[in-house]
Fold this sequence. Notes:
Elements: E1 2-6, H1 11-24, E2 28-31, H2 40-45, E3 56-59, H3 62-71, E4 78-81, E5 99-102, H4 111-114, E6 119-121, H5 134-149
Amino acid sequence: MRLALYQPDIPQNTGTILRLSACLGVPVDLIGPAGFDLSDRSFRRAGLDYLEHADLARHESFETFAAGLAASTPKPRLVLLTTHATETHISFAFRDTDVLMLGRESAGVPESVHRHVDARIRVPMQPGLRSLNIAVAAALVLGEALRQTGRFAE
Length: 154
């Protein structure tokens, strides 16, 4: 199981997700370009003391990230969290090799990335509300994925 952040906009959300991943032992892929400096120095300045505990891979673009996925054996499924999905994260059957991708806070992911994913899921919400904070959505979905696959550390 991995998390992938597509061109994140907000460093505080990225920091929260990196802390989540460090605490739960889940690697993170940061797909650039981002809306802020992705250097270790920048993260440390933002107080991300969990960075040294995070399994973090940086990718210059979606194309380089996708090429790495395609070369992986077995090939993981790319699962996009999006408000535009019909299937919920609770009804979805996760696999331990899934990569859970979150889009930009400001714009999600472009159609070209939508065409590349293997599945789309959403967190069910009350009607009329736009979306959850990306770090909250990551925690909800990752928690369910880890529960289903028996990967929670005890």
